[in-house]
């Protein structure tokens, strides 16, 4: 493994690169308004609109604008100051929610249910999370619980082979709860530290999905009190504000306890993570800024805020 995968400086540089499009969108909106001069009272409403258009959401944008209004009374504000005020306010929202995934369950395994809409990169994210646990010397088992999508099962098997991690799978359209039961038994028998369970992501039939996920949760909970120990929602940053409705739905149907956001490198809409944090207050475990295994890392609120706003550059 290359040093930059694990070295903090290397990751921070990659995160800035991954968030470049989101940062540029925010900067362009603000530079047009602020330029190099002093912000006047009449500019604040336009700045708030610019922040909203950068997917930060109305509440976060109002908070930042209020801080800029306070700062304006003290002295001139240039673009660097605007960036820093925005970064500080975003950091205050994000940093309390940054929570690495910890393996705490005893007896083992620590069981993590991974949910999300099809197409968000859920299956690949599971592999990347498994890789993170391996780096911490934990043993992992994967369960291909998205039994309705043969491609998802095959994809997880490919990742499992690449990472030398066993994958529990069943026949097409197999009962997901039954598969989870088998996976838990196998994880216990083989002494695995972590069990990662993939799930279906079909929102067309919300009631059916709710029933299926509730059954999976019940089965795991009966085998090990407290399981699943984490229920993680994988979000695709490119969906922008649609991510907020996904959080709302999956909180309802799956009891989501934390978030992972992927594909931040492929969009100018990374600000939506800030809007999600402000609205829902769920822990943010990790973010992804690329396709490689090392491109998913534990979330750092300050680093994200600085990269998103371009502060300190």
**Global shape:** elongated
The gyration radius over C-alpha positions equals 21 Å
Structural class: alpha/beta
The biggest beta sheet is recorded as: 8 strands, mixed
How much is the average pLDDT? 90
Q: If helices are DSSP runs of H or I spanning 4 or more residues, what is the number of helices? A: 13
Strand order of the largest sheet: 3-2-4-1-5-6-7-8
Content of β-strand? 5-15%
Helix content percent band: 40-55%
Question: What is the H/E order?
Answer: HHHHHHEHEHEHEHEHEHEEH
- Poorly predicted runs are 1-6
The CATH homologous superfamily of the largest domain is termed P-loop containing nucleotide triphosphate hydrolases
Q: How would you describe this structure to a colleague?
A:
Helix content is 54%, strand content 12%. By secondary structure, the chain is an alpha/beta fold. The protein has 2 domains: 3-97, SRP54, nucleotide-binding domain (Four Helix Bundle (Hemerythrin (Met), subunit A)); 110-300, P-loop containing nucleotide triphosphate hydrolases (Rossmann fold), CATH 3.40.50.300. An 8-stranded mixed beta sheet has the order 3-2-4-1-5-6-7-8, with helices on both faces. Helix 12 (272-280) links the parallel strand 6 and strand 7 (284-288). Helix 3 (20-34) runs antiparallel to helix 4.
């Amino acid at each position: 493994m290359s040093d930059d995968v694990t070295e903090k400086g290397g990751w921070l540089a990659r995160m800035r690169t991954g968030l470049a499009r989101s940062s540029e969108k925010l900067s362009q909106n603000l530079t047009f308004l602020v330029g190099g001069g002093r912000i006047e009272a009449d500019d604040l409403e336009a700045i708030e609109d610019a922040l909203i258009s950068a997917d930060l959401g109305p509440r976060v944008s109002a908070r930042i604008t209020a801080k800029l209004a306070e700062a304006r009374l003290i002295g001139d504000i240039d673009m660097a100051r605007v960036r820093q005020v925005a970064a500080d306010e975003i950091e205050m929202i994000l940093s309390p929610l940054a929570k690495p995934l910890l393996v705490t369950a005893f007896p083992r395994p620590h069981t993590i249910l991974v949910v999300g809409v099809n197409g968000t990169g859920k299956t690949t994210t599971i592999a990347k999370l498994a890789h993170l646990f391996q780096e911490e010397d934990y043993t992992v088992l994967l369960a291909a619980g998205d039994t309705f999508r043969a491609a998802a099962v095959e994809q997880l098997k490919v990742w499992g082979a690449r990472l030398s991690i066993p994958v529990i799978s069943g026949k097409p359209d197999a009962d997901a709860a039954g598969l989870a039961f088998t996976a838990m038994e196998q994880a216990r028998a083989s002494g695995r530290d972590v069990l990662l369970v993939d799930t279906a992501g079909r929102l067309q039939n919300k009631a059916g999905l709710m029933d299926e996920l509730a059954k999976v949760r019940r089965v795991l909970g009966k085998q090990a009190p407290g399981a699943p120990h984490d229920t993680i929602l994988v979000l695709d940053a490119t969906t922008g504000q649609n991510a907020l409705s996904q959080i709302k739905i999956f909180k309802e149907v799956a009891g989501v306890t934390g978030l992972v956001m992927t594909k931040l490198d492929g969009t100018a809409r990374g600000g939506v993570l800030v809007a999600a944090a402000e609205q829902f207050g769920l822990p943010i475990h990790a973010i992804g800024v690329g396709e490689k295994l090392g491109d998913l890392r534990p979330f750092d609120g300050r680093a994200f805020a600085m990269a998103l706003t371009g502060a300190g550059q």
